Amino acid sequence: MNSRLLRRALIIFAAGLILLLLGLASAWYLREPAPPKQSRIDGPSSAEAKIGGPFELTDQNGELRRARHFSGQYMLIYFGFTFCPDACPTALTNMTQALDMLEEEAQTKAEQVVPIFITVDPERDTVEEMASYAEHFHPDLVALTGTRDQIAAAAKQYRVYYEKVETESAGEYLMDHSSQIYLMGPEGKYLTHFTHQTPADELAAGLERYVK
Predict the structure, then answer these.
(1) Which keywords are on file for this protein (predicted)?
(2) What are residue 164's DSSP bridge partners?
(3) How many CB atoms lie within 10 A of CB 105?
(4) Do 62 and 16 fall within a single domain?
(5) Comparing C-alpha atoms, which of 212, 181, 158, 193 is closest to residue 77?
(6) 69 inside domain
(7) pLDDT tens digits, 13-43
(8) Cα distance from N-terminal residue to C-terminal residue, the chain
(9) How much of the chain, in percent, has pLDDT values that exceed 70?
(10) Residue range(s) defining the domain that contains residue 18
């Protein structure tokens, strides 16, 4: 066989090998299940997100509160901490103003919504500290604290990230944390969420849309 025929044979063989490999790859890909669709957590979604669940914490009056105690009500939940310099007071202020707006437009709807603040800093956020802090916001605000394990369990249910961040001042620290405001339905199911920067009027409009 001359060099020309040999080169042609090699080209045909290589092309056949490539086609075979592509065919095997396609067959393998078709055998693999499609990746599951992830629920969006950046706004309203028609898919049911795996957010929420049971918790056992203590409110600012020292009373034990479980998630089931809010059954039949809408929970507007925010995780933060009382020493938070910006995001937390912004979120709680927007929640307060939104509920006030909702009450002016539809009082019966506003009465169905319970604003809840859960600390991610149980070391400093004692019952007394939470009571003092809650006074600055909505009169119906339920401020919850607990042990490290209780807070960790609640944060896990709501897919909340938090971590202690040391500052330059000795003994001082901040808490880095996710900053969503969750709206949970009367049966404890996730409905939607907002950010701490969602304006009060938009938050009120969202509540009016979801609260029946």
Answers:
(1) Copper
(2) 175
(3) 12
(4) no
(5) 181
(6) yes
(7) 444 444 444 444 433 333 333 333 333 333 4
(8) 84
(9) 76
(10) 1-34
